Amino acid sequence: MINVRKVWRSFGFAGQGIVALFRYENNARVHLLIAGLVLLAGCWLHLSLVEWSILLTQIGLVWAAEAFNTAIEKLCDFVSPGLHPQIKAIKDLSSGAVLILAIAAVVVGLLILGSKLLAIFGIHIIS
């Protein structure tokens, strides 16, 4: 049997994590700002459902990656407060994963939003 109270409590903890991510992590706030701009551009360009689905998935993936990266960095700082080459490598790999996903999201955004913007100016690319 599912304990609904425990489920709701878990959602509360997850919500606290999301709030903390955007409240305390500068990079997450940068991603939030860019996502807001992308959403405004999407509204202005009248994206299709498929285009919205793709962009929202990219935004969610970047935010999730940023949350994982933050969790890994906080765990590393807790386990090894001093400088350690292995901890540095772990943190670099974790932030590198976010960068890879963010670059992919930018490319996807440029493909979707860029093609719409070019079409406004009468320039059509191969679709």
Automatic annotation (TrEMBL):
Lineage, top ranks: Bacteria, Pseudomonadati, Bacteroidota, Cytophagia, Cytophagales
Family to which this protein belongs: Belongs to the bacterial diacylglycerol kinase family.
Keyword Transferase: yes
Pfam families the UniProt entry points to: DAGK_prokar
Location of this chain's protein in the cell: Cell membrane
Record-given protein name: Diacylglycerol kinase family protein
Coiled-coil boundaries: none
Gene3D superfamilies given in the database record: 1.10.287.3610
Keyword GTP-binding on entry: no
Cofactor note: Mn(2+), Zn(2+), Cd(2+) and Co(2+) support activity to lesser extents.
Residues annotated to bind substrate: E66, S95
Binding residue positions for a divalent metal cation: E25, E73
Required co-factors: Mg(2+)
